[in-house]
């Protein structure tokens, strides 16, 4: 375990306070609480870079950790998606930490997406 997570931006060594997760399938960048582990498509960001975050053209940024952000009609949906992405990306042998809050959706699209990500993250299965 590394004692301090650092911002992933070049030339920025400030402690990370948030994790940016790219959901390529939906062209969505989800900025949420600092992830409990590092993985390839997640980027830790410091407070300053979190605030400055801009998405590539055609991408949408969803901020899960910003209470001042205006409510979005699809917020619940996207939060569920972000949770699903992290759950799918989490190594199986580290599961059961009890942090996976929120109801799971029975949407078949969600299941398929999670299955897709699980396959990507678990080449040995
Ligand atoms: Zn930074």
The helix count comes to 3
Any low-confidence stretches, pLDDT <50, length ≥5?
94-98, 105-123
Please write the string of helix (H) and strand (E) elements. EEEHEHH
N-to-C span: 26 Å
Supply the helix-strand structural class. Answer: alpha+beta
Beta-strand content estimate: 15-25%
Bound molecules: zinc ion
What is the average of the pLDDT values? 72
Task: State the share of residues found in helices, binned by percent.
Answer: 25-40%
**Secondary structure: number of strands:** 4
Strand order of the largest sheet: 3-1-2-4
Radius of gyration: 15 Å
Principal-axis shape equals globular
Largest sheet: 4 strands, mixed
Describe this structure in words.
- The chain is 28% helix and 16% strand.
- The chain is α+β, with helices and mostly antiparallel strands and 125 residues long.
- Strand 1 and strand 2 (28-33) form a beta hairpin.
- Helix 2 runs parallel beside helix 3 (108-121).
- The structure holds zinc ion.
- Residues 7, 9, 12, 14, 45-46, 48-49 line the site of zinc ion.
Blueprint (SSEs and pairs):
Elements: E1 18-23, E2 28-33, E3 42-45, H1 47-52, E4 60-63, H2 75-89, H3 108-121
Parallel strand pairs: 2-4
Antiparallel strand pairs: 1-2, 1-3
Zinc ion binds next to helix 1.
Concise description?
The protein has 125 residues and is α+β, with helices and mostly antiparallel strands.
Which features does this protein show?
globular, disordered C terminus, alpha+beta, binds zinc ion, 3 helices, 28% helix, 4-stranded mixed beta sheet, 125 residues
